[in-house]
Amino acid sequence: MTRQTRADGSLRHLLTLEGLSRTELTMLLDRAQEYVRPLGVRPPVSRALAGITVANLFTEPSTRTRVSFELAAKRLGADVANLEMQLSSRTKGESMLDTVFTLESLHVDVFVIRDAEAGVPGAVAASVAPHVSVLSAGEGSVAHPTQGLLDALTIRQRKGRIAGLTVAIVGDIRHSRVARSAFHALATLDVAELRVVAPAALLPGADEFRGAARHTDLDAGLRGADVVMMLRIQRERMQDEAQLDAAEYFREFGLTSERLRLAKPDALVMHPQPMNRGVEIASDVADGPQSAIRDQVRNGVAVRMAVLATVVRP
Ligand code: CP
C-alpha cells in the first residue's frame, strides 16, 4: 500500500481512510465543518491555495464528486484543470502515468483521480514528484475516502455524535467503495454496532468488514438502527449478479417508509447517490423528513475543501 503521509507524519495523499487515526479523522471533520454553510448563505472563499493547480482525472462517470472537487479547489483559490478523459490522449493509448507526468510538467500539484481499476490512485501516488499530492475520488470497489468523510460528517451533524450509534449499511456492499470507506471511518470513530445488510450474493468477503454484524434479512438489519445507509446496485461491477431483478430486489431490500419504522423513530436515512429510486429506496423515503441525502451532497464540498487544505503545504 502506498504511504499517505510525509516523513513528518502530515497527510500528503488521501487514498483510503483505512489506517487513519481517530485524531486524524476528527481533525478533517472539524476542518470540514468550518467550511459548511446553510443553503442560501454564500460559501466561504479564500486564497489559501492560490498558485496551486488541481487536475481532475475521472475515467468513470461522476456528478457529485467531480463538481464538488472543482468547487472546493476554486473556493480555496486554486486553478483547476478538468480532463475530459474520453477526449484526452488516453484514447490514443497514452498510459495514465504518462498523462500524469505530462500534467506534472504543466505544474499540476494535486491529482484527483477516479478509476474503475483497483490500484490506480496508489500507483500514481507512488510515481509523482515529492511536492505533488494524489486524492482518490473513487477507486474501483476499494475506496472512496472523501465520501466516507462526508458520510461521517453528515452523521455527526445530524446525530451530534458517531460514537455509540448503530449504523446499518444496506445493499450492494460487495461492490461498494462507499461502504468500505464508511466502514473504516465509522469503526475508527467508535460506532457501537455496524451492520452490513445484503442478499448473500452481495455481502462482502468474510475477511472484510471485520466486527460488523452480517444480515441477509433487511428487517433484522434495520431493527433499532440509528442510521440507515442505502447503497446503489452497481451493475457495472457485477458479473452473474447483473441479472438481478429490480422489482424483486425492491421487494426484498428496498427501503420503504413501512420498513423504516423498524429503525429508531429518529433514524437517519442516507444514500451516496446516484440513486435508483424504486430499486433500493422509495422516493417518499429519499425525500422524506428523515433523509440526510441532500446534506451529504452539501457536505461534499466542505470535506473536499478540508482535504485539499490539509494535503497542500502552506
Ligand atoms: N457519491 C458519488 O460518488 O457520486 P458521483 O458518482 O456522482 O460522484
Question: Can you summarize this structure?
Answer:
The protein is α/β, with parallel strands linked by helices and 314 residues long. Helix content is 35%, strand content 14%.
Please characterize this protein's 3D structure.
The chain is α/β, with parallel strands linked by helices and about 325 residues long. The chain is built from 11 helices and 9 strands. It has helices at about 20-35, 65-75, 95-105, 120-125, 145-160, 175-190, 220, 245-255, 255-260, 285, 295-310, and strands at about 55-60, 80-85, 110-115, 135-140, 165-170, 195, 215, 225-230, 270. β1 (about 55-60), α2 (about 65-75) and β2 (about 80-85) form a beta-alpha-beta unit. It is globular. It starts with about 20 loop residues before the first helix and ends with a helix. The model has no long low-confidence stretch (mean pLDDT about 95). The structure holds phosphoric acid mono(formamide)ester. Phosphoric acid mono(formamide)ester binds next to α2. Phosphoric acid mono(formamide)ester (CP) binds near residues 62 and 63.
